[in-house]
Protein backbone atom coordinates (compact mmCIF):
# COMPACT_ATOMS: atom_id res chain seq x y z
CA UNK A 1 0.00 0.00 0.00
CA UNK A 2 2.76 2.35 0.96
CA UNK A 3 4.69 1.60 -2.21
CA UNK A 4 1.68 2.57 -4.31
CA UNK A 5 1.44 5.95 -2.53
CA UNK A 6 5.15 6.72 -3.13
CA UNK A 7 4.85 5.85 -6.80
CA UNK A 8 1.78 8.08 -7.06
CA UNK A 9 3.61 11.08 -5.50
CA UNK A 10 6.64 10.66 -7.81
CA UNK A 11 4.41 10.47 -10.88
CA UNK A 12 2.60 13.65 -9.75
CA UNK A 13 5.85 15.59 -9.31
CA UNK A 14 7.10 14.53 -12.74
CA UNK A 15 3.87 15.67 -14.36
CA UNK A 16 4.03 19.05 -12.50
CA UNK A 17 7.65 19.62 -13.60
CA UNK A 18 6.78 18.88 -17.22
CA UNK A 19 4.01 21.46 -17.11
CA UNK A 20 5.91 24.31 -15.32
CA UNK A 21 9.50 24.18 -16.76
CA UNK A 22 8.55 25.08 -20.36
CA UNK A 23 6.80 28.20 -19.09
CA UNK A 24 9.92 29.60 -17.35
CA UNK A 25 11.71 32.41 -19.36
CA UNK A 26 15.44 32.31 -18.59
CA UNK A 27 16.32 34.74 -21.35
CA UNK A 28 14.46 37.67 -19.74
CA UNK A 29 16.89 37.92 -16.79
CA UNK A 30 19.92 37.81 -19.07
CA UNK A 31 18.44 40.45 -21.33
CA UNK A 32 17.61 42.63 -18.35
CA UNK A 33 21.18 42.39 -17.00
CA UNK A 34 22.68 43.20 -20.39
CA UNK A 35 20.35 46.15 -20.81
CA UNK A 36 21.20 47.49 -17.39
CA UNK A 37 24.95 47.24 -18.07
CA UNK A 38 24.66 48.93 -21.40
CA UNK A 39 22.55 51.65 -19.78
CA UNK A 40 25.23 52.32 -17.17
CA UNK A 41 27.85 52.63 -19.85
CA UNK A 42 25.85 55.42 -21.49
CA UNK A 43 25.49 57.54 -18.28
CA UNK A 44 27.76 60.63 -17.91
CA UNK A 45 28.46 62.14 -14.48
CA UNK A 46 27.32 65.77 -14.27
CA UNK A 47 29.99 67.98 -12.60
CA UNK A 48 30.91 71.62 -11.99
CA UNK A 49 34.19 73.09 -13.17
CA UNK A 50 36.34 76.20 -13.25
CA UNK A 51 38.40 77.61 -16.12
CA UNK A 52 41.97 78.55 -15.17
CA UNK A 53 42.66 82.27 -15.52
CA UNK A 54 45.03 84.76 -13.83
CA UNK A 55 43.79 86.23 -10.56
CA UNK A 56 45.14 88.57 -7.90
CA UNK A 57 46.41 86.84 -4.77
CA UNK A 58 47.92 88.04 -1.52
CA UNK A 59 50.00 85.70 0.60
CA UNK A 60 48.79 86.71 4.06
CA UNK A 61 49.65 85.25 7.45
CA UNK A 62 47.80 86.05 10.66
CA UNK A 63 49.41 86.70 14.03
CA UNK A 64 49.05 88.78 17.19
CA UNK A 65 51.09 91.72 18.38
CA UNK A 66 51.52 94.47 20.94
CA UNK A 67 51.66 98.22 20.42
CA UNK A 68 54.59 100.22 21.79
CA UNK A 69 55.50 103.89 21.97
CA UNK A 70 57.89 104.94 19.23
CA UNK A 71 59.90 106.66 22.00
CA UNK A 72 59.49 106.36 25.78
CA UNK A 73 61.48 107.64 28.76
CA UNK A 74 61.08 107.97 32.49
CA UNK A 75 61.59 111.57 33.54
CA UNK A 76 64.22 111.71 36.29
CA UNK A 77 66.47 114.38 37.71
CA UNK A 78 70.25 114.20 37.35
CA UNK A 79 70.68 115.79 40.78
CA UNK A 80 68.98 115.79 44.16
CA UNK A 81 66.97 118.77 45.33
CA UNK A 82 63.57 120.28 46.05
CA UNK A 83 61.08 120.86 43.23
CA UNK A 84 60.09 124.51 42.92
CA UNK A 85 58.16 124.36 39.62
CA UNK A 86 56.17 121.77 37.67
CA UNK A 87 55.47 123.17 34.21
CA UNK A 88 53.56 120.35 32.51
CA UNK A 89 50.00 119.02 32.63
CA UNK A 90 49.39 115.32 33.03
CA UNK A 91 48.27 113.62 29.82
CA UNK A 92 49.10 116.67 27.67
CA UNK A 93 51.43 117.01 24.71
CA UNK A 94 54.79 118.74 25.04
CA UNK A 95 57.44 119.79 22.53
CA UNK A 96 61.09 118.80 22.51
CA UNK A 97 63.06 121.27 24.67
CA UNK A 98 60.08 122.37 26.80
CA UNK A 99 60.96 122.90 30.49
CA UNK A 100 58.96 120.39 32.52
CA UNK A 101 60.36 120.52 36.08
CA UNK A 102 62.59 123.02 37.90
CA UNK A 103 64.63 122.10 40.99
CA UNK A 104 65.86 124.69 43.51
CA UNK A 105 69.19 126.09 42.26
CA UNK A 106 69.61 129.14 44.54
CA UNK A 107 73.05 128.05 45.79
CA UNK A 108 74.27 127.34 42.29
CA UNK A 109 73.04 130.73 41.06
CA UNK A 110 74.95 132.43 43.89
CA UNK A 111 78.07 130.46 43.02
CA UNK A 112 77.66 131.48 39.40
CA UNK A 113 77.51 135.19 40.31
CA UNK A 114 80.62 134.79 42.45
CA UNK A 115 82.46 133.14 39.59
CA UNK A 116 81.42 135.88 37.18
CA UNK A 117 82.97 138.44 39.57
CA UNK A 118 86.16 136.40 39.81
CA UNK A 119 86.24 136.14 36.05
CA UNK A 120 86.07 139.92 35.62
CA UNK A 121 89.01 140.42 37.99
CA UNK A 122 91.01 137.64 36.36
CA UNK A 123 90.35 139.07 32.91
CA UNK A 124 91.54 142.54 33.95
CA UNK A 125 94.64 141.04 35.54
CA UNK A 126 95.40 139.02 32.42
CA UNK A 127 95.02 142.15 30.27
CA UNK A 128 97.38 144.23 32.45
CA UNK A 129 100.07 141.56 32.47
CA UNK A 130 99.73 141.22 28.71
CA UNK A 131 100.35 144.96 28.25
CA UNK A 132 103.30 144.85 30.66
CA UNK A 133 104.74 141.87 28.82
CA UNK A 134 104.55 143.73 25.53
CA UNK A 135 106.65 146.54 27.12
CA UNK A 136 109.02 144.02 28.70
CA UNK A 137 107.97 145.22 32.18
CA UNK A 138 107.07 141.71 33.40
CA UNK A 139 108.13 138.16 32.77
CA UNK A 140 106.45 135.57 30.60
CA UNK A 141 105.96 133.39 33.67
CA UNK A 142 103.93 136.02 35.52
CA UNK A 143 101.73 136.53 32.44
CA UNK A 144 101.17 132.75 32.14
CA UNK A 145 100.05 132.62 35.79
CA UNK A 146 97.52 135.41 35.18
CA UNK A 147 96.24 133.71 32.04
CA UNK A 148 95.92 130.38 33.88
CA UNK A 149 93.82 132.02 36.61
CA UNK A 150 91.44 133.37 33.93
CA UNK A 151 91.08 129.96 32.31
CA UNK A 152 90.45 128.35 35.71
CA UNK A 153 87.70 130.81 36.62
CA UNK A 154 86.07 130.38 33.18
CA UNK A 155 86.05 126.61 33.75
CA UNK A 156 84.37 127.12 37.16
CA UNK A 157 81.66 129.15 35.42
CA UNK A 158 81.04 126.39 32.84
CA UNK A 159 80.90 123.77 35.60
CA UNK A 160 78.37 125.80 37.59
CA UNK A 161 76.23 126.30 34.48
CA UNK A 162 76.27 122.54 33.90
CA UNK A 163 75.13 121.95 37.48
CA UNK A 164 72.32 124.47 37.05
CA UNK A 165 71.27 122.73 33.81
CA UNK A 166 70.86 119.50 35.77
CA UNK A 167 68.21 121.22 37.91
CA UNK A 168 66.05 121.68 34.81
CA UNK A 169 64.24 118.66 33.36
CA UNK A 170 63.30 119.27 29.72
CA UNK A 171 61.43 117.14 27.17
CA UNK A 172 63.92 115.21 25.01
CA UNK A 173 61.35 114.77 22.21
CA UNK A 174 57.76 115.58 21.27
CA UNK A 175 55.29 113.43 23.14
CA UNK A 176 52.63 113.04 25.81
CA UNK A 177 53.46 113.27 29.52
CA UNK A 178 51.92 110.65 31.75
CA UNK A 179 50.79 110.87 35.37
CA UNK A 180 53.25 112.56 37.71
CA UNK A 181 54.28 111.03 41.02
CA UNK A 182 55.68 114.18 42.67
CA UNK A 183 54.47 117.62 43.70
CA UNK A 184 55.96 121.07 44.13
CA UNK A 185 58.07 120.99 47.30
CA UNK A 186 58.98 117.30 46.94
CA UNK A 187 62.61 116.43 47.53
CA UNK A 188 63.74 114.13 44.75
CA UNK A 189 66.86 112.21 43.81
CA UNK A 190 68.04 110.63 40.55
CA UNK A 191 66.16 107.45 41.57
CA UNK A 192 62.80 109.29 41.71
CA UNK A 193 60.52 108.78 38.67
CA UNK A 194 58.71 112.06 38.11
CA UNK A 195 56.55 110.87 35.17
CA UNK A 196 56.83 109.15 31.81
CA UNK A 197 57.06 110.77 28.39
CA UNK A 198 55.89 108.85 25.34
CA UNK A 199 55.83 109.58 21.65
CA UNK A 200 52.87 107.69 20.16
CA UNK A 201 52.86 109.02 16.61
CA UNK A 202 53.87 106.91 14.84
CA UNK A 203 53.35 103.93 17.10
CA UNK A 204 55.38 100.71 17.02
CA UNK A 205 53.89 97.24 16.72
CA UNK A 206 55.86 94.17 17.82
CA UNK A 207 54.87 90.72 16.51
CA UNK A 208 56.32 87.29 15.76
CA UNK A 209 55.92 84.92 12.80
CA UNK A 210 57.02 81.28 12.17
CA UNK A 211 60.66 80.84 11.20
CA UNK A 212 59.80 79.51 7.72
CA UNK A 213 58.87 83.07 6.71
CA UNK A 214 62.23 84.46 7.88
CA UNK A 215 63.50 85.10 4.36
CA UNK A 216 60.18 86.48 3.11
CA UNK A 217 59.47 89.03 5.83
CA UNK A 218 61.66 91.99 4.91
CA UNK A 219 61.77 95.72 5.48
CA UNK A 220 58.87 97.51 3.80
CA UNK A 221 56.32 94.68 4.01
CA UNK A 222 52.77 95.94 4.55
CA UNK A 223 50.79 94.87 7.61
CA UNK A 224 47.16 95.40 8.56
CA UNK A 225 46.57 96.07 12.24
CA UNK A 226 43.16 95.49 13.83
CA UNK A 227 42.29 96.58 17.35
CA UNK A 228 39.80 94.17 18.86
CA UNK A 229 38.15 96.70 21.15
CA UNK A 230 37.26 99.14 18.36
CA UNK A 231 37.34 96.85 15.33
CA UNK A 232 39.22 99.50 13.33
CA UNK A 233 41.97 98.65 10.87
CA UNK A 234 45.26 100.48 10.40
CA UNK A 235 48.02 100.04 7.84
CA UNK A 236 51.69 99.90 8.73
CA UNK A 237 55.07 98.87 7.35
CA UNK A 238 57.77 96.61 8.75
CA UNK A 239 60.96 98.56 9.39
CA UNK A 240 63.07 96.03 11.29
CA UNK A 241 63.35 92.23 11.66
CA UNK A 242 65.24 90.50 14.46
CA UNK A 243 68.21 88.68 12.87
CA UNK A 244 67.99 85.82 15.38
CA UNK A 245 65.32 83.10 15.57
CA UNK A 246 63.86 82.52 19.04
CA UNK A 247 64.97 79.00 20.00
CA UNK A 248 62.12 78.40 22.43
CA UNK A 249 59.28 79.32 20.04
CA UNK A 250 61.02 78.99 16.65
CA UNK A 251 59.63 82.35 15.64
CA UNK A 252 61.07 85.56 14.26
CA UNK A 253 60.36 88.89 15.91
CA UNK A 254 59.61 91.92 13.76
CA UNK A 255 58.64 95.54 14.35
CA UNK A 256 56.47 97.87 12.28
CA UNK A 257 55.44 101.52 12.36
CA UNK A 258 51.79 102.57 12.15
CA UNK A 259 50.61 106.15 11.69
CA UNK A 260 48.68 107.38 14.73
CA UNK A 261 47.77 110.97 13.84
CA UNK A 262 44.50 110.88 15.80
CA UNK A 263 46.05 109.11 18.81
CA UNK A 264 43.58 106.22 18.51
CA UNK A 265 46.23 103.59 19.25
CA UNK A 266 47.67 103.35 22.74
CA UNK A 267 50.90 101.64 23.85
CA UNK A 268 50.50 98.19 25.39
CA UNK A 269 47.36 97.22 23.45
CA UNK A 270 46.74 93.73 22.05
CA UNK A 271 46.23 93.80 18.28
CA UNK A 272 45.49 91.33 15.50
CA UNK A 273 47.87 91.50 12.55
CA UNK A 274 47.72 90.47 8.91
CA UNK A 275 51.14 90.37 7.25
CA UNK A 276 51.11 90.66 3.45
CA UNK A 277 54.14 88.55 2.46
CA UNK A 278 53.49 88.46 -1.30
CA UNK A 279 51.22 90.36 -3.66
CA UNK A 280 50.70 88.36 -6.89
CA UNK A 281 48.85 89.78 -9.88
CA UNK A 282 48.50 86.61 -12.01
CA UNK A 283 48.06 83.51 -9.89
CA UNK A 284 46.18 80.33 -10.86
CA UNK A 285 43.60 79.53 -8.17
CA UNK A 286 41.20 76.61 -7.73
CA UNK A 287 38.73 75.74 -4.93
CA UNK A 288 40.30 73.65 -2.18
CA UNK A 289 37.74 70.85 -2.70
CA UNK A 290 39.04 70.31 -6.25
CA UNK A 291 42.46 69.20 -5.00
CA UNK A 292 43.05 65.47 -4.51
CA UNK A 293 45.72 64.49 -1.93
CA UNK A 294 47.64 61.39 -2.93
CA UNK A 295 50.67 59.42 -1.76
CA UNK A 296 52.40 60.27 -5.03
CA UNK A 297 51.53 63.96 -4.74
CA UNK A 298 48.58 66.30 -5.16
CA UNK A 299 46.37 65.99 -8.25
CA UNK A 300 43.32 67.48 -9.95
CA UNK A 301 40.84 66.26 -12.55
CA UNK A 302 40.88 68.17 -15.85
CA UNK A 303 38.02 68.13 -18.35
CA UNK A 304 39.53 66.87 -21.62
CA UNK A 305 37.66 65.41 -24.59
CA UNK A 306 34.49 65.12 -22.48
CA UNK A 307 36.33 62.92 -19.99
CA UNK A 308 37.99 63.31 -16.60
CA UNK A 309 41.78 63.34 -16.87
CA UNK A 310 43.87 63.01 -13.70
CA UNK A 311 46.66 65.63 -13.61
CA UNK A 312 49.52 65.93 -11.02
CA UNK A 313 50.04 69.51 -9.78
CA UNK A 314 52.26 71.49 -7.44
CA UNK A 315 50.57 73.87 -5.04
CA UNK A 316 51.58 77.11 -3.36
CA UNK A 317 49.68 79.57 -1.21
CA UNK A 318 46.59 78.27 0.56
CA UNK A 319 43.64 80.23 1.87
CA UNK A 320 40.43 79.15 3.55
CA UNK A 321 38.60 78.53 0.26
CA UNK A 322 41.22 78.55 -2.50
CA UNK A 323 44.66 77.20 -3.28
CA UNK A 324 47.31 78.37 -5.72
CA UNK A 325 48.49 75.99 -8.44
CA UNK A 326 52.14 76.65 -9.28
CA UNK A 327 52.56 73.99 -11.98
CA UNK A 328 50.55 71.26 -13.68
CA UNK A 329 47.82 73.40 -15.22
CA UNK A 330 47.85 76.03 -17.96
CA UNK A 331 45.84 79.09 -18.80
CA UNK A 332 42.43 78.05 -20.14
CA UNK A 333 42.42 74.52 -18.65
CA UNK A 334 39.11 73.36 -17.16
CA UNK A 335 39.42 71.90 -13.66
CA UNK A 336 36.57 69.78 -12.31
CA UNK A 337 35.44 70.97 -8.88
CA UNK A 338 32.60 68.60 -7.89
CA UNK A 339 31.93 64.87 -7.82
CA UNK A 340 35.60 64.21 -7.10
CA UNK A 341 34.92 61.04 -5.10
CA UNK A 342 32.91 59.42 -7.95
CA UNK A 343 35.37 60.37 -10.69
CA UNK A 344 37.79 57.90 -12.26
CA UNK A 345 40.46 58.30 -14.94
CA UNK A 346 38.90 58.73 -18.44
CA UNK A 347 35.37 58.63 -17.02
CA UNK A 348 32.86 60.42 -19.30
CA UNK A 349 31.56 63.62 -17.70
CA UNK A 350 29.23 66.45 -18.51
CA UNK A 351 29.86 70.03 -17.37
CA UNK A 352 26.83 71.27 -15.47
CA UNK A 353 28.12 74.77 -14.68
CA UNK A 354 31.40 76.67 -14.84
CA UNK A 355 32.30 78.69 -11.74
CA UNK A 356 33.49 82.27 -12.06
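^ Assign residues to that structure.
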Amino acid sequence: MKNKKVVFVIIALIILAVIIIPKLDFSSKSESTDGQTSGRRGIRLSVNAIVIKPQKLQNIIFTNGTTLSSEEVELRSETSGKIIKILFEEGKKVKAGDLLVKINDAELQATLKKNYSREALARDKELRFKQLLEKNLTSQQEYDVAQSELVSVSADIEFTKAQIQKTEIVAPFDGVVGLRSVSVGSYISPQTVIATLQNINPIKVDFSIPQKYFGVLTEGKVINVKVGSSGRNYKGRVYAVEPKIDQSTRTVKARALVSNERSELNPGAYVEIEVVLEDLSSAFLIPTEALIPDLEGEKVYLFRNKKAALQPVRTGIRSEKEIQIISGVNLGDTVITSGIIQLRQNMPVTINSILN
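Helices lie at 2-20, 27-42, 106-134, 140-165.
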